[in-house]
């Protein structure tokens, strides 16, 4: 029998299949995927958290079911999302207030007249704003990759998702996976979206978490069952929700030129020791832009080395989860020789951060597994 003639077609099919990317998981979780919560592998808590920034968006379009499922598959401890609201008050996963950069809204002629200009944190922004679309309209759009240098083959294949759908990915995972949702642009959302019951964006955000059973302080039994960090750049949103939840919160910190959207405080104010003494009553950590910890000049790390931000935060009992780690050469300082493992090694083993926001959860997971095997 001619075994070669039989086998070669199968080899060819396998090779062709391997050229179009890894197979995607189902677009939405189903009952068959729900694992027994009593036997799920628990969250690891002995090494810095692997936080999948908008899902595995280095490969797949950000904030989609596919990107979040891929991140879970790749070993993320937490999946991260930005929560905004539609015109009719549905909470959705979307980073930008405008739809321009990550959806095909410009291709929908019926929405051509929806383009608007709004003031956002002192800037005049023009585009298709999420607050001008109902959820039914938003469901007509398809998501695309933000960066042109990333894989474009998945453009148009996925839709926007709701906060509840995002939560469902974590709850249906076969191991315990945490969520890391952000109360995004709360000042703008509260100005432009009104709920019939008179409640605020932050109220609706917390109602959703309560609906799905999220409760408990950091490291409590309840928290370990359904881990979560709530993040925001707006300090008053975090202090407000602290009135009715003990879920752990993280204050995000932008670059030194950006003031807080709600309190108009400078970077230097919110990173001072006196402010840390105040905010530690409400949050368990900070999430700073990584250049505020390790500055760079012309893509070279500053010769002055790391700032004292991590040390001071730790001295106040605050965790530090910097953002964002990306594998591509555009985002890696020359000092790391285009090797993301070198970057992870510096941040984890020398700077000693407590978690990392990454677009490549698989790379971070592989590094941590590899370094654990080496005894690091």
TrEMBL record:
GO terms for biological process: glycerol metabolic process; lipid metabolic process. SUPFAM superfamilies: PLC-like phosphodiesterases. The keyword Calcium does not apply. PROSITE patterns: GP_PDE. Pfam families: GDPD (PF03009). Its EC number is 3.1.4.46. Residues 1-21 form the signal peptide. It comes from the Eukaryota. Residues 48-368 form the GP-PDE domain. It catalyses: a sn-glycero-3-phosphodiester + H2O = an alcohol + sn-glycerol 3-phosphate + H(+). Keywords: Glycerol metabolism, Glycoprotein, Hydrolase, Signal. The keyword Glycoprotein applies. GO terms for molecular function: glycerophosphodiester phosphodiesterase activity. One of its GO terms (cellular component) is vacuole. Belongs to the glycerophosphoryl diester phosphodiesterase family. This is glycerophosphodiester phosphodiesterase.
């Amino acid at each position: 029998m001619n075994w070669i003639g039989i086998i070669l077609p199968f080899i060819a099919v396998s090779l062709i299949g391997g050229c179009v990317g890894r197979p995607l998981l189902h677009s939405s979780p189903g009952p068959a995927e729900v694992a027994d919560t009593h036997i799920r592998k628990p969250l690891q808590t002995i090494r810095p958290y692997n936080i999948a920034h908008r899902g595995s968006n280095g490969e797949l379009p950000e904030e989609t079911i596919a990107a979040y499922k891929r991140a879970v598959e790749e070993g993320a401890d937490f999946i991260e999302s930005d929560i905004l609201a539609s015109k009719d008050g549905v909470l959705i996963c979307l980073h930008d207030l405008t739809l321009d950069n990550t959806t095909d809204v410009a291709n929908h002629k019926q929405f051509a007249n929806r383009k608007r200009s709004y003031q956002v944190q002192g800037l005049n922004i023009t585009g298709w704003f999420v607050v001008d679309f109902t959820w039914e309209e938003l469901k007509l759009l398809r998501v695309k990759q933000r960066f042109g240098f990333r894989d474009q083959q998945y453009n148009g294949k996925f839709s926007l998702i709701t906060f509840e759908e995002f939560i469902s990915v974590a709850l249906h995972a076969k191991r315990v996976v945490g969520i890391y949702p952000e109360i995004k642009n709360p000042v703008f959302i509260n100005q432009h979206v009104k709920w019939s019951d008179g409640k605020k964006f932050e109220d609706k955000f917390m109602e959703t978490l309560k609906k799905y059973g999220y409760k408990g302080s950091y490291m409590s039994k309840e928290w370990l069952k359904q881990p979560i960090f709530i993040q925001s750049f707006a300090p008053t949103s975090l202090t407000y929700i602290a009135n009715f939840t003990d879920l752990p919160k993280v204050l995000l910190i932008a670059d030194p030129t950006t003031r807080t959207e709600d309190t108009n405080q400078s970077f230097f104010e919110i990173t001072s020791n006196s402010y840390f003494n105040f905010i530690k009553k409400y949050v368990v950590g900070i999430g700073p832009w990584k250049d505020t910890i390790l500055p760079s000049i012309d893509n070279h790390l500053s010769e002055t080395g790391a700032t004292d931000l991590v040390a001071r935060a730790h001295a106040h009992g605050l965790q530090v989860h910097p953002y964002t780690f990306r594998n591509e050469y555009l985002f890696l300082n020359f000092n790391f020789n285009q090797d993301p493992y070198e970057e992870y090694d510096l941040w984890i083993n020398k700077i000693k951060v407590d978690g990392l926001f990454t677009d490549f959860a698989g790379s971070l997971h592989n590094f941590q597994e590899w370094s654990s095997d080496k005894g690091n």
